[in-house]
Amino acid sequence: MSTPKWSAEFLSEAQELVDAYNAALSALDEGCKAGGDLDPERINECFRIVHSLKGLTSLLGVPNFADLSHRLETLLDALRLGKLRLHTRSLDTLFESLELFQRGVAAAASERDLDKTDTAGFFKRLDGLIRADLEGEANDKDDLEQFELDPAMLSVLTEYEEHRLRENVRRGSALYRLHGDFSLAEIEQSIEEMKARVKPAGEIVTYLPSGDASDPEALALDILIASRWTLSELTSALSGLVQTEVHAIPRAVRAPKTAPVRTLHTQTEATGESRIGQDDEPLGSLRSVTQSVRVDIRKLDTLMNAVGELGLVQGGLVGLLERLSEAGHTDESRVLRQQVRALERKLRELQQGILEVRMVPLRQIFDKLTRVVRKISRKLEKQIRLEILGGDTELDKLIVEELSDPLMHIIRNAIDHGIESPAERRAAGKPEVGTVTVQAIQQGNRVIVSVSDDGRGIDETRVAAAALKRGLVDANIVRELSRTELFNLLFLPGMSTREEATEWSGRGVGLDVVKTNISNLSGIIDITSQLGVGTNMAITLPVTLAMIQAILVKVAGRTYAVPLNSVVESLTVTPEEIHTIEGREIISLRRQSLRLARMAEVFALQPETQGANALPPAQYYVIVVGIAQHRLGLVVDEFVTQQDIVIKSLGRTLAGVRGVAGATELGGQVPVLVLDIPAIVEDAVARTPSREVARA
Amino acid sequence: MTRFATDDSYLSSYTQRHAAHTAHATEALTFYLGDELYGIELSWMREIAKLGHVTELPRVPACLLGVASLRGLLLPVVDLRIRMNRPATTLGSTARLLVVDVAGELVGFVVDRVLRVMRIESKNVEHSPFAGSGESDYVASVVRMEGLLFALLDVAGLARVELGGA
């Protein structure tokens, strides 16, 4: 770099300007903090100083310093003209620039320029501020501030919903809120009907399940409607459909009643109206921050174990109670029974409480999806609208984390394989923008997370062809597979229907990984698809993994616990109902053949008592388990009971014992093994024809 | 499934795992497998428990009896006699579970009878006569003292049971 000698005069002038800038900024800062009317002249003052600095630095021949001044001038200009609002963040940036100026002057004094690395980070933040302005986000906030919207509701809106909300507000719509119960059976029709009725003058911005329905068969929804209708017009439009009242969301007192966006900003500029003070919001939210506590999930596991062991103590008390009452101590046993019942209730409350602490809303991962979808769709040049429903549905923290990757995979697949290009969609008479809907619904102690698209659907003949081509399945077998079974071929390792792999999916490492991950969570995945209409992938998950419900069964004299979340149903079959194909036992269940696995054989168990084998039982007990898309009937000797259990790990040494997920204690320090259903099912299906071919 | 339904596990927490021993001395717990005497350095020991209920595990090597609960803590139970290729006769009332701590994981060793803790001077220790022969993988050294002869065992090696195969 050529370094002309700076005259002392220039340098002192630069220093003076920086000092003046410092003073002007401080005045600006004070003005903001005071919260009163801000003198716009203060911003102008800053602007003028920086403008002078720009001229001076370009004379001095310090390009980086000059660049800094130039960029800052742009920012101040935007602030001055009200294109950008002055708030904490922009003020921080201004103060940061002051520091850089001082460094710049010091560097110039020793005949150097500012280092590019010094300014790079600052420029990035500066660009961020200006871009926010260009995208109109800063302005849009003003629009929404016209309404007294529930911040909790605002925070869960998807990007798209928020965009629609702003769009509507900008067009002068009023906002209405509606809270009501909808019967689970008809909820979809109800929502569709409501959408249709609202449509002439607006739209439903969002409907969020709020989980406080009075009826277990109903789902309470919080509905946000934007409409150009008045409250009475909207109420009459919705009459008969909803029982509850529609409320208008009041406009905030502070904002002018029907001020269009631009006027609002002219005002800011002209009078310096104190919108600045409103940005001290973070202070207001400090309280809610202090009300939550971060907890290591392992601590919760410890608590859960303690509760489980208290359950054992309670079991012991029940035993004592029985002995007391058998011995005729009626008075004592009556009192004890009351106490035991009270203990039981409180224990259940405690258990429930701990489970709830572990629960987090799926929104945590749903929010990330929006970003990913935008990225992928841009890359693949497809237009995607992501619709997210039921983000409030809660799942165990561990499950939510593990779900993130599989969900991402499925969505990539939906966009890459499912949604057609805009041209194809036009030709098919579909809207150019494809819709991917991610929805979470709780059903009892399971949550169903589904990803559906309105794309081309899965062509099972192509799936079969691809599987054949890759040698994953035998031609003779393919011919006999049902449609669902053909879809299930997609879960085979090495399967891909795409000829070329894209960066996003189709590398053949997609769905089999998804399947494995879902299976690890004791989840089930189901595909439904209709050619030309779309595909739906539904993941069914247990709500929690820490405390699970299990069926206790007996096999060859041993007791095992089968996690209920992988149990589809249980039944009894007579020996005559069992058929064999190539030595493998199957039964017919609702016209589908179900493969059987005898637990005693799976675990190679020796019969405990001699002679028990002499007589084959008159009937067998079968537990139908499902992992991902597979079903298997486990044959056991006896169903004992169903109960809540706490799973404990067997530790490192025994981690490799196949078919055992852990153990639980049922009292008297007797560990009972908990079956690892995914592993057992996997071992069983590893011998199905398609896999045999795959492995050959 | 049930082996010995003795409910309480008891006693003798050898908390002095890092017991003060002089530079050339070590302490070992000695016990019998059948009629052979063996020893384990005391630093491995967590406690000696009575053998309670052991839940059998599927498809594991015969020496791995199963999993037991030690006051709510689950640990694998290894029959040291089978592990050491000694005849495994029926366990009597003197049988004990030696709970050892291998890198933070507890493992239980079933032995026929516990003798006592012995203080071993380095002059009493001989190298394993089988070293390098590949005949006995788990004998670390041989101790000769007070008219007794016993092998000090490699606890970490014994605890590492290969699960595959059975």
Walk me through the structure:
Chain A has about 700 residues and is of the alpha+beta class. In chain A, about 45% of the residues lie in helices and about 20% in strands. In chain A, the strands form 5 sheets. Chain A has a 6-stranded mixed beta sheet with strand order 14-18-19-17-16-15. Chain A is elongated. The termini of chain A are far apart. The model of chain A is unreliable at about 255-290, about 500-510 and about 690-695 (pLDDT under 50). Chain B has helices at about 80-85, 155-160; strands at about 25-35, 35-40, 45-50, 55, 65-70, 75-80, 95-100, 105-110, 115-120, 125, 140-145, 150-155. A 6-stranded mixed beta sheet of chain B has the order 9-1-2-12-11-10, with no helix packed on it. Chain B has a 6-stranded mixed beta sheet with strand order 3-7-8-6-5-4. Chain B contains 2 helices and 12 strands, in the order E-E-E-E-E-E-H-E-E-E-E-E-E-H. Chain B is globular and about 45 Å long. Mean pLDDT of chain B is about 80; it is low at about 1-25. In chain B, strand 5 (about 65-70) and strand 6 (about 75-80) form a beta hairpin. By secondary structure, chain B is mainly beta. Classes of the chains: A alpha+beta (about 700), B mainly beta (about 170). The interface of A and B includes residues 657, 658 and 672 of A.
Overall mean confidence score, pLDDT of chain A: 77
Number of helices of chain B: 2
- From N to C, what is the helix and strand string of chain B? EEEEEEHEEEEEEH
First-to-last CA distance of chain A: 68 Å
How does the overall form of chain B come out from the CA principal axes?
Answer: globular
| Residue windows where pLDDT falls under 50 for at least 5 positions of chain B | 1-23
Short recap of the structure:
The complex is a heterodimer of chains A (696) and B (166). Chain A has 696 residues and is α+β, with helices and mostly antiparallel strands.
Give the topology.
The complex is a heterodimer of chains A (696) and B (166).
Chain A: H1 8-34, H2 40-60, H3 63-80, H4 88-109, H5 116-134, H6 137-145, H7 151-156, H8 159-170, E1 174-183, H9 187-198, E2 202-209, E3 218-227, H10 231-237, E4 246-248, H11 261-271, H12 281-284, H13 286-290, H14 297-326, H15 330-358, E5 359-361, H16 363-379, E6 384-389, E7 394-396, H17 397-418, H18 422-427, E8 434-443, E9 446-453, H19 460-469, H20 475-480, H21 483-488, H22 511-520, E10 524-530, E11 534-542, E12 547-555, E13 558-563, E14 567-573, E15 579-581, E16 584-589, E17 592-598, H23 599-602, E18 620-627, E19 630-636, E20 638-646, E21 660-665, E22 671-675, H24 677-685, H25 689-695
Parallel strand pairs in A: 6-8, 13-22, 17-19
Antiparallel strand pairs in A: 1-3, 1-4, 2-3, 5-7, 8-9, 9-11, 10-11, 12-13, 12-20, 14-18, 15-16, 16-17, 18-19, 21-22
Helix pairs in contact in A: 1-2, 1-4, 2-3, 3-4, 3-5, 4-5, 6-8, 14-15, 16-17, 17-22
Chain B: E1 25-33, E2 36-41, E3 45-50, E4 54-55, E5 64-70, E6 73-79, H1 80-83, E7 96-102, E8 105-111, E9 113-121, E10 125-127, E11 139-145, E12 148-153, H2 155-159
Parallel strand pairs in B: 2-12, 6-8
Antiparallel strand pairs in B: 1-2, 1-9, 3-7, 4-5, 5-6, 7-8, 10-11, 11-12
